[in-house]
Design brief:
Blueprint (H helix, E strand, L loop, with lengths): L1 H14 L18 E3 L3 E7 L5 E6 L5 E5 L5 E7 L4 E9 L3 E17 L1 H4 L11 H6 L3 E8 L20 E3 L1 H4 L4 H14 L3 E7 L11 H4 L3 H12 L2 H22 L3 E2 L2 E2 L12 E4 L13 E11 L8 E9 L1 E6 L2 E7 L4 E6 L7 E11 L5 E3 L5 E4 L5 E3 L3 E9 L18 H7 L9 E5 L8 H19 L6 E4 L15 H11 L6 E4 L14 H15 L11 E8 L2 E7 L5 E2 L9 E4 L5 E3 L1 E5 L2 E5 L8 E4 L10 E2 L8 E2 L12
Parallel strand pairs: 1-7, 7-10, 7-24, 8-10, 24-25, 25-26
Antiparallel strand pairs: 2-5, 3-4, 3-6, 6-7, 8-9, 11-12, 13-23, 14-19, 14-23, 15-18, 15-20, 15-21, 16-17, 16-19, 21-22, 27-28, 28-33, 29-35, 30-31, 30-34, 32-33, 34-36
Helix pairs in contact: 5-12, 10-11
Length: 658
């Protein structure tokens, strides 16, 4: 009866107004949307300059009116009640626009790179994705999917899929952020409050792309790049990019010790490789050279049967990441610049001789995994009849160039990895829209500049809070998971330094971080996004919704040294520390004043850990889970893992990296 009366009120309210063109609304306003509860929620749009715009809502029956400015812009703030719905919002400038099936609840913005973008199904195929997708029937969780767009200047509106908000169904959740969905599902189950998720992320992107140009100007490293983004024309940007790219490629050759004046040096059949090192292929080169990107030269001597001499051969290298140039007996036989293409090269018969022949490969790896990897059966030399000589064994290698000694690769003017361009297109359009808070999963693409991230990440958070002008709203984020290869010895690590930068960001008010050091593996996209969402929700339930629950794993607090032992104290022990199934502690290393780290013995003593090492008589520093994929197992009483940490502040591998 009440809704029927309000419907009549709507009709009477707008029937007397003349009908012209309807108001134009940003993409964030649509049927099925969620408005933030218990706030003054802005509703805005465009119409003809000077026109009166009236808004009415079925949750209050009130009317709100304003007049469009000289550019046709208008904005009204409406009071929202406690959660509930569905409701209808009527907006008229003489012609009625109705937004139907609107819920009042909690709105969370979800952003970051591919681990936030990773969908339930689609390319993500998270753990148990078919079951999860089939059961994703939560009509009071609403989804808004933002499309990938860049802009050199701030935009007023964003592009979204499906025409706007959609209820959470098996069909709609399949391509939606799995981390965001599982976060919302946990909140909804515990609170019964409708949840609106604005998902705006982009795989492989850097944090500075998500930060406004104004905020980035306080960081000297970004002043010039931001100015370039804001002032350079499209044509000039493309010309400059092509010029800088060619200069960078020329510099690679110039700095490659395998070249002299542009000519390869290491092709001779009698080349002395006694000082080169061995590497068994196929394999990612990072297994032998952790954290290496750059140029690697590979050398192998192959004995060819006499009957093969003078006849063409097939050389199969399998997959090479990223690029290769390949020579046979000093003559170039192939070149490919594609990280996902199989290498199959034909060796002319005139190059083939009986006895020893030499294969030389120059591999260029621009980042992440690299080298000759994949199926061992695809690495061989074969004659025309298909008889093979396997090459999946020891090769000699020599480093030609480490990219750490190169300036950064020029950024494509169409790239999303330019300062401010994602903030402008995918964040700025929502800064007037009332939200409860933000969840964030990003950092992999900034790992090579982890020290810089110490300032960049807090700057981005503070920037967003300033733009929304809603105070220090909750900002909860995911620390990088374990990934890739486990270092056999304690080693420096850019990923460990990035995790440290994330940990330091907890000094900002109303922030929270989940530790995911136990959720990853060899895949950079951990499949267990259920636990990522659950841990994020634990923080929100405790810090935002007032639940009396434990939400954090152990966080290092302080240490003391007595004799040859270091005693570590922690916050968030939840009564006691433990390891799974009572196993011995792993992941601790100790160093003396010489800064050389050795694996340590560690034991739990109630809410403390005592660490010692036979090789270090006078310890001065302890590190835990310090590596890209550390073996570590310290948990608290509610089975949440401890954050990686270190007690020292010695400069790391990303110190001064820009």
């Amino acid at each position: 009866m009440f809704k029927s009366i309000l419907g009549t009120v709507f009709a009477l309210l707008f029937a007397v107004q003349l009908s012209f063109a309807k108001v134009s609304l940003p993409s964030v306003f649509s049927d099925n949307m969620v408005l933030q509860q218990k706030t003054k929620a802005a509703i805005w749009g465009k119409t003809q300059p000077g026109k009166k715009v009236t808004i009415a809502t079925t949750w209050s029956g009130k009317k709100y009116s304003t007049v469009a400015d000289a550019d046709g812009n208008w904005k009204v703030k409406v009071s929202t009640p406690s959660y509930g719905g569905p409701f209808t919002i009527g907006i008229s400038d003489g012609d009625i626009t109705e937004l139907k099936n609107v819920m009042i609840g909690e709105v969370w913005l979800c952003s970051g790179q591919s681990n936030m973008e990773m969908p339930v199904a689609g390319w993500g195929k998270i753990k148990d994705y078919e079951k999860e997708m089939a059961e994703a029937n939560y009509p009071n969780i609403r989804l808004l999917q933002v499309e990938h767009v860049t802009s050199n200047l701030p935009l007023a509106d964003a592009k979204v899929t499906h025409g706007g908000w959609t209820p959470c169904t098996p069909e709609n959740v399949a391509e939606f952020s799995s981390a965001a969905y599982f976060f919302a599902r946990e909140l909804y189950k515990k609170t019964n409050i409708p949840i609106g998720l604005i998902h705006t992320s982009w795989g492989g992107t850097v944090a500075e792309a998500w930060t406004s140009g104004t905020a980035l100007r306080i960081i000297p490293d970004f002043v010039d790049p931001v100015t370039t983004v804001e002032t350079e024309t499209k044509d000039d940007a493309q010309k400059n990019y092509l010029l800088k790219t060619q200069q960078w490629q020329n510099l690679i050759v110039e700095k490659d010790s395998g070249y002299s004046q542009g000519k390869p040096l290491w092709l001779a059949q009698d080349l002395d490789v006694s000082q080169w090192h061995d590497m068994v292929l196929p394999s990612f080169l990072e297994k032998t050279l952790p954290n290496f990107d750059g140029v690697l030269w590979l050398h192998k001597k192959v004995t060819v049967p006499a009957e093969w001499a003078g006849k063409p051969l097939k050389l199969s290298l399998g997959t090479v990441d990223d690029a290769d140039i390949t020579w046979f007996n000093g003559e170039k036989v192939g070149e490919t610049n594609a990280y996902n293409a199989l290498r199959n090269y034909t060796i002319p018969g005139n190059l083939v001789k009986a006895g020893d022949n030499v294969i030389t490969i120059r591999v260029f790896d621009s980042g992440s995994n690299g080298g000759l990897y994949g199926d061992a059966k695809l690495l061989y030399l074969a004659n025309e009849g298909g008889t093979q000589i396997p090459l999946n064994n020891a090769w000699q290698y020599h480093v030609g160039l480490n990219l750490k000694n190169m300036p950064p690769y020029p950024t494509d003017p169409r790239s999303p990895n330019r300062p401010s361009v994602l903030f402008n297109a995918m964040i700025n359009p929502f800064t007037q829209f009332a939200i409860k808070g933000v969840i964030w999963y990003q950092g992999e693409s900034n790992s090579g500049r982890a020290y810089q991230y110490r300032q960049l990440f807090p700057t981005m958070i503070q920037d967003w809070r300033t733009r929304w002008n809603e105070g220090n709203f909750p900002f909860y984020f995911v620390q990088l998971a374990n990934y890739f290869i486990t270092d056999p010895k304690p080693s420096a690590s850019d990923w460990a330094e990035l995790r440290e930068a994330q940990l330091k960001t907890l000094s900002l008010p109303n922030t929270g971080m989940i530790v995911a050091i136990d959720l990853g593996g060899f895949d950079i996209h951990p499949k267990n996004k259920q636990e990522v969402g659950r841990r994020l929700a634990l923080i929100a339930l405790a810090k935002t919704y007032g639940s009396k629950i434990d939400y954090s794993g152990p966080v290092f607090k302080k240490y003391s040294i007595s004799d040859n032992k270091v005693t570590l104290s922690f916050n968030y022990t939840s009564g006691a520390l433990k390891t799974p199934d009572g196993q011995p502690l792993k992941g601790f290393s100790v160093a003396g004043a010489d800064q050389k780290f050795y694996w340590a013995d560690a034991v739990i003593a109630g809410d403390k850990v005592v660490v010692s090492c036979p090789q270090v008589a006078n310890p001065v520093a302890v590190r835990y889970a310090w590596g890209i994929n550390p073996v570590c197992n310290l948990y608290n009483g509610v089975d949440l893992p401890a954050s990686p940490f270190r007690t020292d502040d010695w400069p790391g591998v990303t110190f001064n990296k820009k």
